[in-house]
Amino acid sequence: MCGIAGEYYFKPSETFDNSGEVLLRNALNAMKHRGPDDQGILSLGTCSLGHNRLKILDLSDAANQPMRDSTGRYVIVFNGEIFNHRELRIDLQEDGHSFRTTSDTEVLLQLLIRDKEKAIAKLNGFFAFAFFDIEDHEIIIARDRFGEKPLWYYTDDKKMVFASELKGLKEFNIPRNIDVVSLSMFFQFSYIPGPHSIYSGVYKLEPGHYLYASRSGVQQMEWYKSYTDTADRTDEGRIISEFRQLLNDAVKCRMQADVPVGCFLSGGMDSSVIARIASQNTHQLRTFSIAIEDQPYLDETPFAVEVASYIGSKHEVIPISNATMRDEIATVWENLDEPFADSSSIAVSLLSRKVKEHVTVALSGDGADELLGGYNKHTALWRSLHHGMAEKFLPYFLPLIDILPESRTSNRGNKFRQLKRYARGLNLSLKGRYLLWASWADEQICEELLTQEVSVRKGARINMFVQDILASDFNSVLRADQKLVLTNDMLTKVDSMSMLHSLEVRPPFLDYRLVEFINSLPVSFKVDKNSRKILLQKTFAGDLPHNVFSRPKRGFEVPLEQWLRNELKPTVLSLLDPKSMRSVEFIRPEAVKNVLDLFYQNKKSEYTSLVYSLVVFEYWFQNKHLREL
Known about the structure:
The chain is an alpha+beta fold. The protein folds into three domains: 2-222, Glutamine Phosphoribosylpyrophosphate, subunit 1, domain 1 (4-Layer Sandwich); 236-371 and 475-550, Rossmann fold; 559-629, no CATH class. The protein contains 26 helices and 17 strands. The strands form three sheets. The chain has a six-stranded antiparallel β-sheet with strand order 2-3-1-9-8-10. It has a six-stranded antiparallel β-sheet with strand order 4-5-6-7-11-12, with helices on one face. Helix 6 runs antiparallel to helix 20 (512-519) and helix 10 (344-355) packs across helix 19 (475-499). The two termini are 29 Å apart.
């Protein structure tokens, strides 16, 4: 796992200075946490490539990057892991290629030399890389199938620059003009869906895409689509057997490393299944969980400990107090590339920091919810499409339901919160319902916060994620989640927070063979009125304690509302005071005050996420945008 950056000019020039190398060095230094073990630069005037290395496979210096082939014609910088590199190496050797390292980087380099862009589809893993042909002055920049590894880029009429993180890309002196449509989407979702970013003209390369640049400019190409048609499969025994085999293989190949490997273990269904399989493929697995002190509703420690005991792993419980969690906020905010307000990133950062003290690679259960229908909204959407008497009459009781007290940190309050959102969604179309339940704030209120009208432009962007949702195909809802939520929220959070502490996280559920298999199954294997992740339960119910599958779904959350109402309140009111706000060109202070009044004075818990998004943006705007201009 690493960080990459580069600068490529479309027209080769015989004269150049070393300014590009200085900018590239600055970009790499800004992302040093992604690869603290080595830093390398290759500057060829009209193309400069850089790499920060976190050593995982082949720890020798021979595997450092940028890596050139024996002829010196081809160069690669690569972030990620190729889990089928051994099989690809054998194929290349049979074709006459020789190797000087045991790294997957060299395998990828040789494969690209032989097959060019056709090589990408042969890779099983996660990655972002740049492959440069010095002689033909052509470069290919690619991103993995589901967006596990990030890649940002900017182009103008002369050049293209790219980096693993926006903080690296900014070192190339790119324009930094706030994209107000992106800002509106941030307030609604708590993140900015790609390919757009907080800055106009700065993009995230879409998953399953690559950029091909030459003297003629840049072309973007799609190399992968995972959204297969549903197969007419009803043989439950065969499906369970195939699913188990695919997941076993996905875990096993992701345990390849020349450094220690462990597992995140919350005690929930997804991480428990991964840890169970991993424990069968190593002598003694190390597992890790967080114990959130003073928050019994959010603390899953007993479940994690029970699973660890059952599978025989060496388990480490990391006790985290409210004070420690709040202190981590400063670290998270200071390392934001763009506004990102999924508050569970605070917990992921803390967990990653502690886990890195013991291992360099950790397996996770990410992806299972989006693939197998694991979220509350999936059950709600299924019920809304198979409605009974409750769904028929519930919207009429919305005025009464609205006065119920809600909270995410108590069982009763959380039930009231879910009931309100469910009742509101029943009045909408299926696409509108999905967007409401995928959002963290009311769309109209988010738009009222802005000084510009954005609804038409934002509608076009949002439509790309929901346009294929059909009432007759519930799998289309899950595919929408994979495109919107998985890539832009979950994987962004895990990569940014784990790599902040130089920890590589590998989610076996995102092995592309497994994804394609699950996406092809009828929805009856995923979700119904009362159950979620049905296939996972049927396959592994006998492999783990009963509690793993019987207890309610609980996210990896922090007591955000409590913090905002108490310890963080001075910070919120200080940053969002009309006299101290610096973002008034984009946000209306009077609208911000209205949101704060609803949250603090009227005790409206449904504004918790929006208040947090507002304070995150204002902090980012003052400390990351204006300060670094």
